[in-house]
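Checklist before submission:
- one chain only
- standard amino acids only
- sequence pasted in full

Submission:
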Amino acid sequence: MKKAVVVLAAMGAVVRIEFGDGVPDEVIERVRHAWTGAAIDPAPARVDTDLRIEVDDVPEVERFLERLSTDVTLEALAHNRGSLMMLHAAGIALDDGRVIAFVGPSGRGKTTLSRVLANVHGYVSDETIAFDRDLRVLPYRKPLSVVREGAPKDQVAPADAGMRDLPDADLTLAAIVLLDRDTSVGEPEIEHLHFIDAAPVLVEQTSYLVELDGTVATLAELCDRVGGIRRLRYSEAADVPAKIESLLAPGPAPEAWTRASVAVRDAVGQASSSDAVDYGDAVVVLSDRTLRVLTGIAPTVIRAARESEEFGSIVKAVIEHHGVPPSGDPEVIVRTAIEELTEAGLLRQR
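Returned file contents:
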């Protein structure tokens, strides 16, 4: 018989944590307190839940609390796969509902930055920023996972860290910022990135990207809609609050691109097509879960091969677009490019 429940909101999903009779009251209270930022409180007696986590035994409390944070996150990510874009990011919300997502792998200071910024702005998450195609953000106000040397991460309730509640406004993604923590930097530096430079990081830090329609094109469209991608190079989190308005300032107009389709083969040779982004002199494609940026003659070879697989036609297209090479046999150069693209699974075997 279950004796207690905690009901949470996680990226739009409703999560019900059920505790068995063997779980001490003080452990349940620790969970309830740590998750106050995400709790649906009071928990209704009957509620339609998307996810359920059962807890029957807690041999090590601190390790359990850390694992629970991971379990809730993974369950919510899996539940939203294919429907939401989910960035591995911390996020804060301004009073008008604009949300800034700070993207980066573990160790880039997302939790520390959340703690500093959310003392001034609304706390959205220190783990995942999830949003739909209208850029509507679904918050995940989990406990802060604070690193402790030689011990499981401490799960700190947002209120205990002095973090603000969400504003009374619709939450909309307004900026994506790639974090680059560099202790040698004095004043924080902001750089606007071309999608080609930002895409490799975004792909690595996006959960279930391949399950979204459009993959790379979806990312490129997202970047354009939020005014491009910024990179923030900083040393101390305390220096970042003064840069919030600068991070929201408009960047350069996005470069024009078109959606393309590339014939690909996966690791076992299965043929398919992959959505790609064509900038003219570069093509960005996600093939077999690997992001590739094609430059030089590669985009021309890809386009020419779509029109004709005849080798002479491909060579002619390359010469017409790039001119005769200053050195080397153009046929040898093109054949080498075809072999490399075929090996990468981006052209059919010839």
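Reviewer check: The two ends are 65 Å apart (CA to CA).
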